[in-house]
């Protein structure tokens, strides 16, 4: 009964409709000629410079350009950073007010990332409740994400297109990261069990700018970014973003050297026809980190700096993505868009992981299992180091054409989107076995569990090419969605999508040698939104999605003849714009269920008899309490259960699904030029694998910052993990369940300079 209390309390909160208007709405009359004291800084700055700012929502009114304001010096910053977002394209493929999307959405804006000195995609997602991290696993490298308890590795998008490459993403060219929770095959096709994550690139505009950022930190961390935007004509502009970094770590031997560039040009700005051409080129040379092995049901109690691998391990990744978009607005009612994206991703990995924990230093020494329980002292235990070498190549071509119409039929107002998605993807993965003579197959060394030596790979190791997996997929998706406004207070959202997903795979050694499958699936989405006042919105929704066996273009033998897994989601929630629209508060109750999950029977065969469900509550907050004080954060409660399975995991908690997660970040401008901020990240305990044999403890990590702002430059200081908390970040289910330690206390100093 106690486990249900958070959900019961949340239901009472969502169901309760406030009887009074927001506090600031009562005290700030609409007719005032000055910006309300609680209005976002962007509005105040715009009024001081004689420009009209965009309202916080459709009902907000801006003050006249000639408004007289109190003498407040807020022009020392070139841009007024704002943690609050009003619209997102992730929930409807076109820019839509968040209050009109009948699902939970979190938009992490650039302002939050800059305030936290965030550079990696994974670190940025710490601001999103319900997101947990996985590390390199099997044939997968790069960002491996779980969203509301379900894998989202193939549900990462870049400007609306699937970004399926296995690489470590950077934030240097991102305006925001938008997360839509729940099954959403209506817009995105296969996948999206727990939701989708869309990276929104920076766009060219008509405001000249040239920004340079220099960052240095402890543990040999150095980073530089450049952002240049230049109008070319009255209706066209060019923008280029670039970065380079050399990052050390509080983990031994961890060092990454990466760089990237993202040019973009836009024609027809402010005209009915706009054409955008963009590219992303990125190169990573990183030290792979496969974490620490388990012992006695938890990560081994060794120094968290301990590295199990070789000093010459490396992962080399190259990304090339080209995107072309054309949009034509016929009039205020009809718009036609077409977008094409080509991507190539290559990975060359020479990596090592801590495999079995042995009770002796020999290849014939017995190995521990089932959580690695033992009474032997740490000094008597050893670890088998296993090679994880492979070359991976991904190619993809995507094209989307959609037509948006806004019209009325009687008293009903329609916002209709109809479109077609076409895609072609190929994938190859050449794996290798690396063995040192005298040791068992695919064993490079056997090292002590405590204080393993840090040396290059043995000079006499032998590497043999093993399985070559080559696969391809073609998909056609047709979709229709309509948002119908019924009077002033009600909206009904309904849509349907039909997909034909055809995929095949060929393995040179592994089974099946060859497999092909064609899946047809119809996805639906529906929701009702009630907006009794401009500042409050309530909704209920239902959606479905599907996961083919060849979704990731990889396959385990025995699954080639299985139909897709089915997912369904129910959600009820509220979205409030409080303090005269300055602060957004969202809440939702959700239930996501995979009703026919693939499960392994005792005879080695697979069937679609599994059932996995995650229910929970989510709270989000973003915006200003006062003009000087803003915050961004969220909390989620997840009750995950494997309801049915034949592999012995029935009744267990799904891997990497903590019951509680909280993230919070706040800043305060205590003078016109000085700003301080900080906040915690909390993750409760979770299991490394579905068998629940290895549990990783919960943690609270605190980060803080202080910044000095001037018109031309900012100086910012950040301390990551202020208390030097020892915690485990990403989890890996294989080899009993490994865990990667998180970053220790790190100091960063950043100089942002604006040339214009």
TrEMBL record:
Its main location: membrane. Keywords: Cell outer membrane, Ion transport, Membrane, Receptor, Signal, TonB box, Transmembrane, Transmembrane beta strand, Transport. Residues 280-722 form the TonB-dependent receptor-like beta-barrel domain. GO terms for molecular function: siderophore uptake transmembrane transporter activity; signaling receptor activity. The keyword Disulfide bond does not apply. Residues 98-196 form the TonB-dependent receptor plug domain. Residues 1-25 form the signal peptide. It is found in: Cell outer membrane. It is a multi-pass membrane protein. NCBIfam families: TonB-siderophor. This is TonB-dependent siderophore receptor. It comes from Caballeronia cordobensis. The lineage of its organism: Bacteria, Pseudomonadati, Pseudomonadota, Betaproteobacteria, Burkholderiales.
